[in-house]
Amino acid sequence: MTRQTIAVWEKGERMPSIGQLAAIAQALGVPLEVFFEQNAEEPTLLFRADEAGVLTPALRALILKRALAYAEIEREIGEVAVSPPQMPVEAYEPHAVERYAGEVRDFLGVEHAPLGDVIARLEERGLKVLLTPLPAHVSGFSAYTESLGAVIIINENHPVERQFFTALHELAHLICHRQDFLHPEKAVAAGLREKLANHLAGAVLLPREVLERELHAFRNRWIPEAMLLDLKLRYSVSMRTVLIRAEQVGIISRKQCGQQIGVLNKRFGKDKEPLELRREFYNPDFKDDQSQVLPKSRLERLVFQALSLGVVSASRAAEVLGVPIEYIRKRAALWSSNGGSAL
């Protein structure tokens, strides 16, 4: 570390990274923790999950580590931690949820257009989205703190359409039920909260106006499977969600919704549908010959920006992304700000 770097720290113009603090601690012969012991504001993520038992100490520690690393990269390149707007809701009122969906779509920067890659759109708004392996019955969960912002965790093994729905389900909790993150043990009417989050997620994916425009010819009639599949591809949503939304806005009856879902279950199984979505479908650039160097997430983009600016090392970049250092080296040259190697 140079004298100039230390002077910048002393002036408060930049904070040392965790890697730099570790190097200082090693040089001084003290544990890294001494740099955090006096900080009363040390972030502690507040978790919320549909099944509290999923949040084991090991999983909490892993997500906290990844969130802190994400925040470190944001800080190094001048990004600000982001949380969605807060809109506390206590009661589940279906008509009100349809209205809330419009406000969420405004936050996401769309009106009635398809959302496309939901995860990418959330990341464009500055939210932290982490895909990680979880038990098959767990779709995801979320975490929050003022200093780190909102973190949405999604099961990376689930189909893409389910990942999109889960991301918006957790966004709904972050917007409507943020008080549950502060006092999860005091959360009441959990069933109604889940119902609201599911309804809001579906309404954001498929607004009432879209359904009435697309399905008006099928009011109180059987919706063809080809129509369900068409809406799935265009609106990044499962065929079952299309049916549930059609029932919620009064296009079909609850009985018909159940019957059509039953047909899908019998044909494909309860957890499968024809033509699983791929995120590449919504990102044409990924099909280009240069797709191997394109960032796969906001975090990856920020890491390579920080690497090109020289504020993180290649080894730290590999650690944050959880990839081999060869992965970093292969892509670093194209991110170099001077045309040479960023390593």
TrEMBL record:
<dbReference type="InterPro" id="IPR010982">
    <property type="entry name" value="Lambda_DNA-bd_dom_sf"/>
</dbReference>
<dbReference type="Pfam" id="PF06114">
    <property type="entry name" value="Peptidase_M78"/>
</dbReference>
<protein>
    <recommendedName>
        <fullName>HTH cro/C1-type domain-containing protein</fullName>
    </recommendedName>
</protein>
<feature type="domain" description="HTH cro/C1-type">
    <location>
        <begin position="1"/>
        <end position="35"/>
    </location>
</feature>
<dbReference type="InterPro" id="IPR001387">
    <property type="entry name" value="Cro/C1-type_HTH"/>
</dbReference>
<comment type="similarity">
    <text>Belongs to the short-chain fatty acyl-CoA assimilation regulator (ScfR) family.</text>
</comment>
<dbReference type="InterPro" id="IPR052345">
    <property type="entry name" value="Rad_response_metalloprotease"/>
</dbReference>
<dbReference type="GO" id="GO:0003677">
    <property type="term" value="F:DNA binding"/>
</dbReference>
<dbReference type="InterPro" id="IPR010359">
    <property type="entry name" value="IrrE_HExxH"/>
</dbReference>
<dbReference type="Pfam" id="PF01381">
    <property type="entry name" value="HTH_3"/>
</dbReference>
